[in-house]
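Reopening this one. Same input as before:
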Amino acid sequence: MREQGDFTMNDKELTDATEKLKTNDANNGVDDCKNESGLSIFQVIYSVLAAMFGVQNQDRHKRDFEKGDPTQFIVVGILFVVVFVFGLIWIVNGILAQQ
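Same output, byte for byte:
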């Protein structure tokens, strides 16, 4: 057991810590949020936003069709459209109320 203030590591501890960091980097830190389809909720949201703006790259587009569940993309897409429409209504009503 280490005493407080002892920050030395043996070779095995250093190797384990390095492997853990490499694994986290490879997963972009979102491995904990993956669902059964293999895409995290953050990846689905990013893909839907990129598709709405028309800037989705070919690699992510291919990944979405290979690993993604269409239901997730549909639900997230509908939610973003609803939020976008209500946001526009709110902005227009705010501008018209000032006149």
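So the earlier flakiness isn't reproducible anymore. For the record, The longest helix spans residues 70-98.
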